[in-house]
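Input.
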Amino acid sequence: MREIMIGGMLAPIVLVMPYLIYLHSQYLRFKNEIPRFRNEDDIQKLKNLAAAQMQGTPTLLKIVHYFPALIWITGMLMGDLYWADLFFYIVLPYLVMGVFCIVAGSPPVKIGQFPVEDQNLETQRDHIVHVWLHETHPDW
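Output.
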């Protein structure tokens, strides 16, 4: 039973890390394709990127945040898991994920610093970045 619980605690991180790498690669592709916002087509591509990245995030965060801790608590109550398991299978993987996120940076924040050709495009870009950072679903 211990092995199953350890697998269950590690599964969300093992699934999330490739997804985070995929999301970061989407941003890098966007950055290479559009180094500055020149027209409405560039803004539309930003909207598509933001909407695509916003879709799976709420569900993903719930699974990653609660699932491993619930398994660990259950394992502690059953006597199959120990305090060291909390560190090795929850805290340490979350630290690795956190370091990756810090090193990779936040795509919305980085995109908010992209150069823009005119004021109208800047306003649109800022709105998209605001929604991307503070809302769960796009409003466009």
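The first helix runs from residue 2 to 33.
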